[in-house]
Design brief:
With 341 residues, the chain is α+β, with helices and mostly antiparallel strands. It has one domain. The protein is built from seven helices and 13 strands. The strands form two sheets. Strands 1, 3, 4, 5, 6, 7, 9, 10, 11, 12 and 13 form an eleven-stranded mixed β-sheet that branches. Strand 10 and strand 11 form a beta hairpin. InterPro entries: CU044_5270-like. This is CU044_5270 family protein. Keywords: Membrane, Transmembrane, Transmembrane helix.
Length: 341
Amino acid sequence: MNTTLGPDTDLIERMRARITERTDPATAPAVRRVRVLSPRRPLVWGVAAALAVTGTVVADVVFSPGQQGAEARAAQLLERAADISIRTSDPVLAPGQFLKIDDAQTTYSGPPADSPQVGHWQATNRIITYVPADGGNSWMVVRTQLPPADIVGGTEAEADAARQFASDTEADSPLHGVFTGTNGRGDYYAPTGGDFSIYPRNVDLLYTYFDLTVQGSSSHNQAIWVGVNDLLREATVPADLRAALYRVLARIPGVSVQENSVELGGRTGVAFTRVDQASMVNQREELIVDTESGQVIGTRTVLLQPEEARNIPAGTVVYSNSIHTSVVDGLPDTSTFPNID
């Protein structure tokens, strides 16, 4: 299945008008929160380009008042990751080459909400994005829904999992197919459409940008955490911006660190974590970083208490995504879908 995507120009224009209103001193209130960031939805670069902000120099990390213990240690390690990132060379693509971004996203699914049965299974969607060297010609996204795994709940849960898999892989499913386009988006975003120059590298300005534009989540600090993580998860973010984003994370209250190595997608790293105390959801969100290279490995959500409705014990990783990047010489043969690597 192939779908051609086009730019959502109406949405971009609406967002540009709202940002203009926010930045006009004659009409802007003291604080105007106009950016909604979903916990598990990447930023749309066409929309982000409308959020023009300026700034240049990367500043040193500033410890928040009262930071101590795990929070202070997290800030120290984030500063280290920032320092390493700023010295990291971004991948250089020759004409005709592509940046291949392989992102495996695994979630725990369960029976329908009105079902009396107890059970769960793992559902994994593999998303491979091919970004062209020139950033403007056609790009490709290959999404593959993998068969359910680790099914708990007996034959009824197995039947539910099979029905869900059949629905996710049917014709025209947004979770299962080959999608192509240029600098636009339909059901998908185009990493090639990103203008990362709009984001300040100055940490004060970058923090202020998120502070003024994010909303949603159960608390404002959590919304900033989500917004920064959404951007860090983009494999095309340049090294200098990634360094500034790490320094922004170090300023968010409640960010801690799990220094024991965390394995994700065949790699190990340090987990920077946050539990939103304002939320009724009892889970810990983690950003896994290779502090030796400054690269993001992926993210996890860990259940802190058992979820009896789906028979999931505490400590279970209920969501994860692992990101691998490489440079390839061409696009894959789509006729082999879903067996595309």
